[in-house]
């Protein structure tokens, strides 16, 4: 790869668009362009840095790379725009940096980086210099040890090879092996493939408590085909898997080979407010009162996340996992009270819960998709009681009833699958204002409990109708543009002028919602099944509905706005105030206000692009 593939003009443009370098004035950006040394690496090669990596500041302009420790374990994956070298010297032990794909890298030495930050102190917020000793996230006061797992691969948490046994092993022998090896679980292998899993809980509940003959084979008490996680995935995903499904042991696999076992204690240590243990506590409750006591800890969880400066993306997933756990437990309690459901159903989350973007302040949006076997006379009373129990239970736990009654307890949103298909067909073929509003709510759907296949098929049918549907998409674009960032005529932040929230900005409806709306349009236009806004933007850039740079800008803007919202709500909760979305710009620093304005400008600019494309009929 030769240097002609990346010109000075390319570098100047990359600096202008970069989330860090763009904070510099134009003349400083020009000087910075003359400071960088541009290097190239092919996939699989070490990044071309002279001497130890931590003695340089590096900027990955194109391609992706991996930071490895001394044992060649993945510590962090890097993508275009990321900084490395000095940036991680005090945080992550890095022995080697390899290109995963063909890379373009900008490099400066330690002395140049130091001079740069000294001349432009604003950069100190982004660049770690020698002598900086920030504490790991897990050690922050009130922090949750699971919070830095976004960049920690599952492999780094595996402590030993798994203890494995064949399916026909007697239960007593398995218990002896677990005792001797001092493990709480055993993996069952058949022909070297994952067959099942037994834990000490299985021995207690399925053998001792049930009086089972201990000479029977362990396959009789095993969890067959257990959930597993690939070795290269971030440990954060293991945390979510455990929290959502109330499990404490997850086999780690490399292809078909089981390489280890991950337990809840491997991914978190603080039991009181960690997502895994809070979810476990929720699943133990047998009354609404018990669930209320458990969900009272959610504010503390968000405070822990904020104290650890967890990303808004991971915070949203963690908080939403708790909502899912509460919902699932209420459904289980409903079935205990009213009996098993007479037909198949799927309980579906809508809105921010579906997108995994919740905070401690939220209402509920949900619906029920019932089997087409549904008969109102035979099944109507059951599902009415069932849905009301769950929705009222959510309300009692702090997830207040939806003001617009978009809940499963409302008959209109508790219907057979074929009726839901009719709803979507009508909304997409006759996109009046109400239909557009309902599409915005009910296109963001995710199965929480029940037969998820019914929702999968419904979603596939909807996407097939929206992809390339220029008339419907034009209306959706117009609807998306009704939410505008709070910028004045001269691009200054414009606050609310009157009323209860005078002098504030609405971070949700004028900041986050416009990005959510644009991402939804991209998903509908491209036929993408992703629900989370960050994931939709990534899918849209991969499908070329939006440039990679524009998608990254929107993701960065979303992350900053959502992070600011979480921090704002956390400050309110610390003062004993109810959390809301209304931020007074005077409550944040000048630097944060500048970032806020930049984020709003990104949204406004890309709304204009979307509007132009809509007016040009390019959908």
Account of the 3D structure:
The protein is an alpha+beta fold and 619 residues long. It folds into four domains: 3-134, Jelly Rolls, CATH 2.60.120; 149-267, Roll (CBS-domain), CATH 3.10.580.10; 323-452, Beta Polymerase, domain 2 (2-Layer Sandwich); 477-615, Four Helix Bundle (Hemerythrin (Met), subunit A). The strands form six sheets. Strands 1-7-2-5 form a four-stranded antiparallel β-sheet. It has a four-stranded mixed β-sheet with strand order 8-9-10-11. The model is unreliable at 131-147 and 269-273 (pLDDT under 50).
* Average of the residue pLDDT scores: 85
Class from secondary-structure proportions: alpha+beta
**How many domains, as an integer?**
4
CATH topology of the largest domain: Four Helix Bundle (Hemerythrin (Met), subunit A)
DSSP summary, beta strand count: 20
The backbone outline, from C-alpha atoms, is globular
Strand order of the largest sheet: 1-7-2-5
CATH class of the largest domain: Mainly Alpha
Q: Give start-end ranges of low-pLDDT stretches.
A: 131-147, 269-273
Oligomer: single chain
β content, as a range?
5-15%
**Residues in helix, %:** 40-55%
Terminal Cα span: 37 Å
Major sheet: size, sense and barrel closure?
4 strands, antiparallel
- The CATH architecture of the largest domain can be given as Up-down Bundle
How large is the count of helical segments?
21
């Amino acid at each position: 790869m030769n240097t002609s593939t990346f010109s000075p003009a390319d570098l100047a443009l990359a600096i202008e668009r970069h989330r860090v370098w763009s904070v510099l004035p134009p003349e400083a950006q020009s000087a910075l362009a003359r400071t960088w040394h541009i290097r190239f690496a092919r996939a699989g090669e070490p990044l071309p840095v002279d001497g130890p990596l931590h003695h340089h500041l590096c900027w990955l302009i194109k391609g992706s790379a991996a930071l490895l420790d001394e044992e060649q374990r993945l510590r962090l994956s890097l993508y275009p725009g990321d900084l490395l070298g000095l940036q991680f010297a005090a945080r992550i032990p890095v022995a080697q940096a390899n290109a995963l794909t063909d890379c373009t890298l900008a490099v400066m030495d330690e002395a140049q980086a130091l001079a740069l930050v000294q001349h432009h102190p604003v950069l100190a917020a982004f660049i770690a210099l020698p002598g900086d000793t920030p504490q790991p996230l897990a050690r922050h006061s009130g922090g949750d040890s699971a919070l830095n797992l976004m960049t920690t691969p599952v492999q780094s948490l595996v402590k030993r090879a798994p203890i494995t046994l064949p399916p026909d092993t007697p239960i007593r022998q398995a218990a002896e092996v677990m005792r001797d090896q001092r493990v709480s679980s055993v993996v069952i292998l058949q022909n070297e493939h994952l067959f099942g899993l037994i834990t000490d809980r299985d021995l207690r509940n399925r053998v001792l408590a049930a009086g089972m003959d201990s000479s029977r084979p362990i396959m009789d008490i095993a969890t067959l085909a257990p959930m597993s996680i690939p070795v290269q995935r971030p440990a954060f995903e293991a945390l979510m898997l455990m929290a959502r499904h109330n499990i404490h042991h997850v086999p780690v696999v490399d292809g078909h080979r089981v390489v280890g076992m991950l337990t809840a204690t491997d991914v978190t240590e603080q039991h009181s407010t960690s997502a895994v243990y809070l979810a476990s506590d929720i699943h133990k409750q047998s009354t609404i009162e018990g669930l209320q006591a458990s969900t009272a800890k959610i504010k503390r969880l968000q405070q822990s996340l904020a104290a650890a400066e967890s990303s808004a993306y991971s915070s949203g997933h963690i908080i939403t996992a708790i909502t899912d756990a509460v919902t699932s437990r209420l459904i289980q309690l409903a079935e205990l009270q009213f009996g098993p459901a007479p037909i198949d159903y799927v309980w579906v989350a809508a809105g921010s819960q579906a997108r995994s973007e919740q905070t401690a302040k939220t209402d509920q949006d949900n619906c029920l998709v019932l089997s087409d076997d549904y008969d109102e006379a035979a099944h109507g009373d059951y599902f009415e009681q069932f849905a009301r129990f769950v929705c009222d239970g959510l309300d009692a736990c702090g997830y207040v009833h939806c003001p617009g009654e978009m809940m499963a307890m409302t008959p209109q949103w508790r219907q057979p699958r074929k009726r839901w298909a009719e709803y979507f067909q009508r909304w997409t073929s006759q996109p009046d204002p109400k239909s557009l509003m309902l599409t915005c709510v009910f296109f963001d759907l995710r199965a929480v409990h029940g037969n998820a296949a019914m929702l999968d098929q419904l979603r596939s049918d909807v996407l097939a109708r929206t992809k390339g549907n220029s008339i419907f998409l034009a209306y959706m674009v117009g609807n998306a543009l009704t939410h505008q960032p709070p910028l004045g005529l001269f691009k200054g932040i414009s606050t609310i002028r009157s009323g209860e929230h005078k002098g504030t900005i609405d971070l949700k409806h004028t900041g986050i919602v416009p990005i959510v709306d644009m991402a939804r349009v991209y998903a509908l236009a491209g036929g993408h099944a992703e629900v989370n806004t960050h994931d939709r933007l990534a899918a849209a850039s991969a499908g070329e509905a939006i440039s990679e740079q524009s998608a990254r800008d929107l993701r960065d803007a979303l992350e900053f706005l959502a992070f600011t919202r979480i921090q704002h709500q956390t400050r309110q909760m610390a003062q004993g105030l109810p959390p809301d979305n209304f931020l007074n710009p005077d409550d944040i620093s000048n630097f944060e206000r500048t970032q806020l304005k930049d984020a709003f400008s990104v949204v406004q600019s890309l709304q204009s692009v979307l509007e132009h494309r809509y007016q040009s009929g390019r959908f």
